[in-house]
Amino acid sequence: MPTAGNARTTLRRSIVAAAALPLLIGALASCGYGSEAAKDEPKNSASNVAADAGKKLSASEVRIGYFPNLTHATALVGLQEGLIEKELNGTKIKPQSFNAGPSEIEALNGGSLDIGFIGPSPSINGYVKSKGSNLRIISGSASGGVKLVVNPEKIKTLDDLKGKKIATPQKGNTQDVAFLNWISEKGWKVDPESGKGDVSVVRTDNKVTPDAFKQGSIDGAWVPEPTASKLVSDGGSVLLDETALWPDKKFVITNIIVSRKFLKEHPDVVEAVLKGTVKTNEWINANPDKAKASANAKLAAESGKPLDAKIIDPAWPSIAITDDPLASTLKTQSEWAVKAKLIEQPDLAGIYDLTLLNKVLKAAGKPEVSDAGLGAK
Fold it and tell me: How far apart are CA 308 and CA 306, in angstroms?
């Protein structure tokens, strides 16, 4: 028969166990077991290879640049959802929005930017101008999302472009180079500096292009999303999707670059950012509708209003989100820029450093990616 002392001891143990139970449940929930948040986590998420949460990284902040374009979805969603910040163990992100590649390259070369999401042509130009001393491409981000949209009353076939005014975002930018190459392959002549010739290439900021199209001062545009779908919503017609011109229908439209100085001094921060982008890309591809809404929320925060469904719904599926920088297509784009006499033959050896990306991918159980022979020797 139990004594009174034994009974009191048993009672105390029961009370302690009961008090500890909610704490145990809370701890399990915070790890994602049975939580709602866990339902949307990809099974092989890069968060599984995140660094020790208690270990501070070597920089107190990292300055990340991007464009308010859907082709920069990795940046938009990664920042909006906090997926990149989660990997940084207290290192703060200082985001910076840019409207054009040259200004982002200038910020990177000037030391006011550490990491940037940017197109291949500005990456090539920045690398060549600094003779390989200032930047490296460290990851892919997006493919596709570029279309030739025209006024269907003036242009019904590709041959009808001759004599018309077609906009590109900026002289020497990724779309400008692609369009000049397409014109050349048609056998038409255009001066790459002035844009004058058999087709008038009108360099116009993407923010201005929709109004110029509505006013009739341009007849069409070779532009990225969401500008392409904005033109369609204003009565334009897609005459050509650039993916149709590429093998496997893939070409780099956005990659991730880093200041060489920042990479050398803070490789742990760069690796953490890449863990975040890999996780972001995986989440985007696993949750396309939620990711689309997230990107739109970030764009709304940038511009003051979200994109209309008639714009974002057709634009979103035309962009492929990928960790692969599709390096061989960057090499092709550089050849186009040389052919258009926008740049001299570049030496691109060393433009890629995919060491940290492939480390992150391998740890996450994903296949490594190639630099197409353009990595550091």
Answer: 6
